[in-house]
Automatic annotation (TrEMBL):
InterPro entries: Inosine/uridine_hydrolase_dom (IPR001910), IUNH (IPR023186), Ribo_hydro-like (IPR036452). It holds the Pfam family IU_nuc_hydro. The keyword Hydrolase applies. This is Nucleoside hydrolase. Residues 75-95 are annotated as: Disordered. Residues 5-319 form the Inosine/uridine-preferring nucleoside hydrolase domain. The keyword Hydrolase applies. PANTHER family: INOSINE-URIDINE PREFERRING NUCLEOSIDE HYDROLASE, URIDINE NUCLEOSIDASE.
Length: 339
């Protein structure tokens, strides 16, 4: 079994990652916490609660932490994920409210209560994680593992020419997190799923059709580039319908940036790595996050060769297997939707 503490900024690909994790029998979702990023923290929490309820996991605690990045003003991205963060999907409003308690305290208490047992997964800006590390510097030793989605170590950003979104939103938090891990034994370093490998997890309409078929939807789930914008799914299974309505928005966004009618589902890959279901190779490196104001803020640089003479602070994913990820995602989301 894998016991996960998840911090996310739900977000279309975060929502798919949560649904994927909800469908993994061997995964215990200990708690899911909200960091502002794709949308503000309250909307992240609403989306997270709604997605968990949709997946039959209304029992998982959800809490809010920071409401803004450590040092820079919050930016959100309705153009990427839609005004509510979940594309064209209209999820039933959640029946629950978030926990009263603060997400950062929840992480620390959970890690202290179960030393060596929990894996941390962050698919959002690292604000909450940096605050948790400030309050409990032993977290790197308390966690069984840490998996992060963020950065672009080939310097091909998706937000600025060199910066990836999660690191762009809170570069100071990312710098603090890597500094906190520097010098840890290599097997304790965070596994980092950055753009050069997450953009290979490119979802296409045929994957949605395969998902609908796996869920046993009687009618074909047609997602075509020529469909008018905003066309809604008619799938009979609610999970397939909502996932399809989220993805249509994501497809249209990616098409705007000339990447084709596809969607990079970054956070699903990070979730599959954290769940231990996705194979990957990693390389240890000392990571620098540029925090100085200017064009390079949010840029991530990895020293793989020890040229800076600093100990490694991360294990950066260097190879992954997209076809395996898709068959796993289609199978598990299909089974969950049919349940
Ligand atoms: C990351 O940015 C967000 O928009 C996505 O949810 C993902 O976590 C990719 O750069
Ligand atoms: Ca995210």
């Amino acid at each position: 079994p894998v016991s996960l503490l998840v911090d996310c900024d739900t977000g279309i690909d975060d929502a798919l990652a949560l649904a994927y994790l909800a469908g993994q029998r061997h995964v215990e979702l200990v708690a899911v916490t909200a960091t502002p990023g794709n949308v503000d923290a309250d909307q992240v929490a609403r989306n997270t609660l709604a997605v968990l309820e949709l997946c039959g996991r209304g029992d998982v605690p959800v809490a809010i932490g920071a409401r803004r990045p450590l040092e820079v003003p919050l930016v959100t991205t309705p153009e990427t994920h839609g005004p509510q963060g979940i594309g064209y999907a209209e999820l039933p409003p959640p029946r629950r409210a978030p926990e009263e308690r603060d997400a950062v305290g929840l992480w620390i208490d959970a890690a202290r209560a179960r030393p060596g047992e929990l894996t941390a997964l962050v698919t959002a800006p690292l604000t909450n994680f940096a605050l948790a590390l400030r309050a409990e510097p032993r977290l790197p030793e308390l966690f069984a593992g840490v998996v992060l989605m963020g950065g672009a170590y080939n310097h091909q950003g998706n937000t600025t020419p060199t910066a990836e979104w999660n690191t762009h939103v809170d570069p100071h938090a990312a710098a603090e997190v890597f500094a906190a891990f520097a010098g840890q034994p290599v097997d304790r370093l965070p596994i980092v799923c950055a753009l050069e490998t997450t953009e290979r997890i490119e979802m296409r309409p045929e994957h949605v059709a395969a998902l609908a078929a796996a869920a046993g939807c009687a009618e074909p789930e047609l997602l075509r580039p020529e469909d008018p914008e905003g066309t809604r799914s008619r799938a009979s299974r609610p999970l397939v319908r909502h996932v399809s309505d989220m993805l249509r928005f994501y497809f249209e966004f990616h098409r705007l940036y000339d990447q084709g009618y596809v969607a990079h589902i970054h956070d699903v890959f990070a979730a599959a790595v954290a769940a231990g279901t996705a194979r990957c190779a990693t390389r240890a490196a000392s990571v620098h996050v540029e925090t100085a104001p200017g064009r390079l803020r949010g840029t991530t640089v990895a020293d793989f060769r020890g040229l800076w003479g600093e100990p490694p602070s991360a294990r950066i994913v260097s190879a992954n297997h997209p076809a395996e990820v898709f068959s796993d995602v289609v199978r598990s989301l299909g089974a969950l939707a049919a349940a």
